[in-house]
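agent> step 3/5: call structure_predict on target 'Thioredoxin domain-containing protein' (Hydatigena taeniaeformis).
agent> reason: downstream docking stage needs a structural representation; sequence fetched in step 2, passing through unchanged.
tool.input:
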Amino acid sequence: MQWGFFFACTGAVAYFSMYAVTSGKETMQRISSNFGQIAIGGDFRLRDQTGMEVTLADFKGKWVLVYFGFCRCPDICPEQLERLIEVQDRLALYGKDKDFVPIFITVDPERDTPEVVGEYVREFSPKLVGLTGSPEQIQVTAKRYRIYYSKGPPDCDGDYIVDHTVVMYLLNPKGEFVEFYGQVKPVQEIVRRIMDHMKKYIG
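tool.output (status=ok):
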């Protein structure tokens, strides 16, 4: 899979890509230090790539692995979504993918319409669910999932990077937060952890 890179006049894109990683790690450190003290996750009301309104309840009975990003992300988001789909594929080898749903939620709702999100997620997998919504809906959802995001300054072409937390969240079939996986967590370890949770889960 090839990905186009967006170049800014002054190198702002590269700067903000690096800043996104740093901020993501700092956010995860805060989450780790506060784990057990703050609630992570909860219901959302967004629209999928077909424009249909969906809520967390629509995924009841499924294990959900969710990643927040944006469709014009030059490198980090494609890498993480490829990892997410690799998790899906490896679970399939063990027959554990039927009750598993990978979800991408944009943090750039102004540009990422259902049509844009639909085209984007199809490049990764037909099983990947893409969600977007109004700026207010995304803000509420990101807050519930402790996702930091901030739009950077536009370049000479009006393009911009969105700095955001780089993390995947695992939710159980009840829609409850189970654990998170950072940017460099090995895929095989994520799969092992998910399968362990599936085995121990009592609905």
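agent> step 4/5: record observation. The chain has two domains: 1-36, 45-202.
agent> proceeding.
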